[in-house]
Amino acid sequence: MANNVKPAGTEKKPGVWKSFAVLMTSVKVPWVWVGLATLVSLFGAQLSLIIPDATAQVAAGDVSMGAILFMVGCMFLSALETSVRQIFGRIASSKTEMNFQKLMLKKNLSLPMPFFDKNMANRLITRTTSDSTLIAEFFGWSVPFIPAAFYKLVGVIIILGQYNWRLLALEAIMLPVIFLVTFLSGRVGFTWNNRIQGKVMKKTLLENPHACQVLMRPSHTAGQEKQAEETARLQAARNGWNGEELENLRQRQAQIEAWQNTPDPPEALASIPRQREGPAERTRRAVYATGNWWARENFDATHN
């Protein structure tokens, strides 16, 4: 009979771009804040193209009031642009992460129970938190940065062409080399990182001499045996008491029962501090009412 098992590492990995696009259409991305961060980034890229000319003009001996004020104004606007871009990027990132976690919580509450039997709760929680952070950073920082980077690259190429065509030709030769080196270094780093992580996992888990395997066999009579041992222990203690000790025990039990059955006075009940139910408790009660154990674990892990 032919062997249909594929060698390790030859399985076809499913693409993620389609799932990522579907997820992006489901999450409410704050495009207004993303657009503002992009515009501010483009403004910063334009300033970075202007500042070298202003600095060169002053360095060449032009110390007129207009040249000095223009250079100082560009530097002030550059610092202001950095602060404003970080504020807009942080707002876009926070809103994206909040909307993504709301979507994940809503989807998790509607999933069937067999899904949680096949997927461990800690893995689902980790993926939810880490994925939300990555998506938030993508829209808060990467999306505004990419157009500004291309704008700055085109501006540098134009400026080099105006100075000397040889500089432009050198830039045209160096850019593909830089991109190729960056790509190859990323691939090499990714490959070696996987190899090192695999070796570390193998040494610490599979080949660890200090690890042991525990096999537990279920017992159908463990409960009855434990109850019998407890009964024998109590009976042995009971046989060791005399009549006076038994009478004192009965009196104390009667006193405790009478104290427990006595209702508290109204002033004592009024003095008990009470706490009103807050938003977190209302959400906890709603999550617990679904009967979804993974949702309960997720809620407890993120709110405790």
The N- to C-terminal Cα distance equals: 55 Å
CATH topology of the domain at 17-163: ABC transporter transmembrane region fold
* Average pLDDT for all residues: 80
Helix count equals 11
The total strand number stands at 0
Tags for this entry?
304 residues, mainly alpha, ABC transporter transmembrane region fold
Explained architecture:
- The chain has 304 residues and is mostly helical.
- Among the domains are: 17-163, ABC transporter type 1, transmembrane domain (ABC transporter transmembrane region fold); 165-208.
- The chain contains eleven helices and no strands.
- The protein has helices spanning 17-26, 31-59, 65-109, 113-118, 121-163, 165-206, 222-239, 243-261, 266-270, 279-289, 293-303.
- Helix 2 (31-59) runs parallel beside helix 5 (121-163) and helix 10 packs antiparallel against helix 11 (293-303).
- The chain is elongated, with a radius of gyration of 35 Å.
